[in-house]
Design brief:
Chain B: Its cofactor is pyridoxal 5'-phosphate. Chain B: Its EC number is 2.8.1.7. Chain B: Keywords: Pyridoxal phosphate, Transferase. The complex is a heterodimer. In chain A, strand 1 and strand 2 form a beta hairpin. In chain A, helix 2 packs across helix 3 and helix 4 runs antiparallel to helix 6. In chain A, strands 1-2-3 form a three-stranded antiparallel β-sheet, with helices on one face. Chain A is of the alpha+beta class. Chain A has a single domain, classed as Sufe protein. Chain: A. Chain A contains six helices and three strands; from the N terminus they run H-H-E-E-E-H-H-H-H. The longest helix of chain A has 23 residues. Helices cover 44% and strands 18% of the residues of chain A. The N and C termini of chain A lie far apart (49 Å). Chain B is globular, with a radius of gyration of 23 Å. Chain B is an alpha/beta fold. In chain B, helix 4 packs parallel to helix 5, helix 10 packs across helix 11 and helix 11 packs parallel to helix 14. Chain B folds into two domains: 154 residues, Aspartate Aminotransferase, domain 1, CATH 3.90.1150; 266 residues, Type I PLP-dependent aspartate aminotransferase-like (Major domain) (Aspartate Aminotransferase, domain 2), CATH 3.40.640. Chain B has a seven-stranded mixed β-sheet, sandwiched between helices. In chain B, strands 13-14-17-16 form a four-stranded antiparallel β-sheet, with helices on one face. A two-stranded antiparallel ribbon of chain B has the order 1-2. Chain B is built from 15 helices and 17 strands. Chains A and B meet through helix 1, helix 2 and helix 6 of A and helix 12 of B. The structure holds pyridoxal-5'-phosphate (PLP). The site of pyridoxal-5'-phosphate has 13 residues of chain B, from helix 4. Pyridoxal-5'-phosphate binds next to helix 4 of chain B.
Chain lengths: 162, 439
Amino acid sequence: MSGLEQLYQQVILDHARERHGEGLLDADPGAAMVGESFQVNPTCGDEVRLRVQLADAPDGGSPVIEHVSWDGVGCSISRASLSVLTDLVEKGSVRDADALSETFRALMSNRGAPLPLEQEETLGDAAVFVGVARFPARIKCALLGWMALRDAVAKALTGPTA
Amino acid sequence: MTTTTANPDVATSARERAAELARVRADFPLLTRQVNGHDLVYLDWGATSQKPECVIDAEQDFYLTANAAVHRGAHTLAAEATELFEDARRVVADFVGADDDEIVWTSNATAAINLVAYAMSNATAGRGGVAAQRFALASGDEIVVSELEHHANLVPWQELAARTGAVIRPLPATDEGRLDVGALETVVGERTRLVAVTHASNVTGAVTDVAAVVDRAHAVGALVVLDACQSVPHLGVDLHALDVDFAAFSGHKMLGPTGIGVLYGRRALLEALPPVTTGGSMVEVVTMTEATYLPPPQRFEAGTQMVAQTVGLRAAAQFLSDLGMDAVAAHEQELTAHLLAGIAQVPHVRVLGPTQAVDRLGVVAFEVDGVHPHDVGQVLDAAGVAVRVGHHCAQPIHRRLGVASSTRASVGVATTTAELDVFLDALAGVRAYFGLATS
Ligand SMILES: Cc1ncc(COP(=O)(O)O)c(C=O)c1O
């Protein structure tokens, strides 16, 4: 595989074209745990605004991410990453999303090598971003959405946003 | 693109110019590199230039044979190093049409512009005595900054305004990406104290009508600060003829080393300007409570100086002088025309800036419809082509032209038409790579 194909795997190109979660959703009326984050990539001026709505877990455990939605200007890597992230964390627990986010960060620090199999399996489609870590200038693109997710969830958990 | 011609003189001169270009290129060792399995096509001269061997050698020779601190100490090496340091100043001054005591060494253009902005703050705080009061700002004074500026010629003025109560007034750009000269009359007025403009935009390539700016600014008693970063490496620049008050440029963009830049100031202004960075090498008499300062340029060169870099920059200025800036500008204009014509042939690509090679440098930013600049740059890089992506430290002009960022190809003295063709070929394939229509 050429360097370019390692970066732009088909799944990434597909997600960059058919984006999941794009278009900010209004929170449901009465939703208590809503958080929004705005992140920029200072090197290219890219922006993303991401919103989450959480709900208490029926079993009293980690809250559930009801909706993820986002809007932004960005490259194919950043938008595909947001799209994949939406698929992976929506309807899952905050705890699982945090774990996933940590694993994704580990993948981005791994210089293009895959993670151990049991970790890689948890990543689902996000594992195709493995090649991005070989392009230091693009790691920030892949992480932008994950940073926004972490920040939005933290805000949703700490209190109502104005 | 080949031109057939019946005139043997024209054919000969074209052949001579091709041979000359091949000689120039051979002076740049880095340009023989491979990138991603291809010959490097370096089209990021606007960000930083590659260096001819003579510049690299000059710096190395300095360390091998003459290294010493300058303007300190009386031993032979110190005297030789000081002579080289001051000789570099003479050569660089001459290269831009200035006198040598009007050239202040800084680390880069950004530092040069900040020097002026902080010196004006110091004057506002009463430093520099009566003579410096011409630089003092009062609440409501206006600093006019063009919308085409690099952040280096914008943010220091924002900070100066915030410290002094002055206000920033934007000088607009046209849809074509040129300075709107027609707006000078209304934007530059009684309260204007300073006008900051670029000689050539690092995004649109547009060359500014400096005379129009200077006329209007001087008519209202305002100072003109010219950002000459993009012009000095590519056009013959005569700062005295341009009649600007201050100017800044960077060595690394004009074939010189990093870590060296220039602040030009009209002699009378530098004499009245209070220092910013203080300490060793810029003082006359120091007691425990106060100090007196050397005349310019030393007043602005505190601390141990970047001597090797000045020697390298001298070699760069000499290299460009030997080529002749008219020849450099003519070569690059030809490249610019080729580049603009070639891009015009690629569907779904829009140039940000003038589309004709008139009053325009070979800094060509563009947008590819449907493909983000990062992705454009990545596909080009895979073909060995180095371009810049992003906002090129000039967000306002991007916003003005309706984009967040762009891809930018910029040429230099050693760029060839064949290189531009490699770039144009790769550019033509970008949309297809992302599954978009190419016609
Ligand atoms: C027009 C212009 N002004 C200012 C600068 C800043 O130069 P430096 O980063 O060398 O200080 C640049 C280069 O990036 C430029 O292109």
